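ok trying again, last paste got cut off:
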Amino acid sequence: MSMTSSTWRRMGASLLVTAMGAAGLVAAASPDGDPPGSELVTTWGAADDIAGGTLSDVTVRNVLRTSVGGRDLRIRISNANGDQPLVTDSAYVGRQDTGASVVPGSSRRLTFGGSTSVTVPPGAMAISDPLPGNAPAVTSLTVSLHVVGTTGVITAHNRAMQHSYKSTSGDHAADESSTAYQTESSAWYFVNAAIVEAPRQVETVATLGDSITSSVGTTIDTNRRWPDVLADRYAKLPEPRRLAISNEGISGNRVLGGVAKAGSAGASALARLDKDVLTKPGVRTVLVLEGINDIYAGATTDELLAGYRQLIARVHASGRCIVGGTLTPMGSSFVYTPEKEAVRQAVNTFIRSSHEFDGVADFDAATRDPADPSRLKAEYDGGDGLHPNDAGNKAMGEAPGLDSLRCK
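nice, full thing came through this time. structure:
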């Protein structure tokens, strides 16, 4: 289960700040401390992968979008796949204006154990001290980190469907203008969670999957991934019924196979479940949509079901719930053969009827062509017969019942 709020607080120093005004990221902290009945939840998340190349004395500016709001924002940075220490001596959070620019006056410095610098060993992560005050829901934030020296292997999330930015040489983390940020990237660098204090009823759903969960095929910088659509639905509910969303998809990922390396599809879902999902605060439900890449690689129905059963057993052993997402159509794609389609259909039958998952999100039914159920609806096809476009992701994000993802 997740650590209590007080346990996490002991890991970081308190900060004293004054109100930042209407343009600020957060307001000043209340002298009364935490609201009663609150706990830490992950309001945004991404899975760790590896980006090619190295970075040397530059600042990376990541753009991420919160799902639920809360208090005392923390950022988790990751060197999980690194091969040498990651050092940053300057880290700031602000509200995105446009592109790499930050809303004037909104930038706030992050500290780690009271220090503005942190060294993250290879394979490790670090969580910032809380920024006291309110962090808004459904808001695009910038997280800027100055990289000291030259990195080795870069822990990142590829194909983020969101631009991040790399600066010219030097520390530009506090810059609110975009002038120094001359290079766009399609990866999030080093950040894998944004964490807030939220009312105890608010929990996090982690969406574990592949490129369809990363939502390759949607329009970049528009937050039209199906997990974003789901987050927007929850944001409209009264606060006690809201859930946060943490997107843990990796393009090309498989349930059964794969290791993390540059340009890879990441470690398998079975290998990364703890790191990418179960260690993130507030996660109570895991929504799995993964298996098409296994089928493409030649996995049999029995092999894939055995993998699902291990995910189910491990999530249940951690005291959480797990929902199975049916595999979306792949007819007319490079994956399709009649034999592989038979495996997909058998897997979907298991997900729908075995009752081994705690619930079902029927993404297949939401996106298939009634005239040919092996194919995506034409209006949902991103162009390759496999990845849904913006409209297809909207249909997927609207498929689950909102209360069906709450772990009871």
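cool. The two ends are 14 Å apart (CA to CA). Residues 208 and 264 are 17 Å apart (CA to CA).
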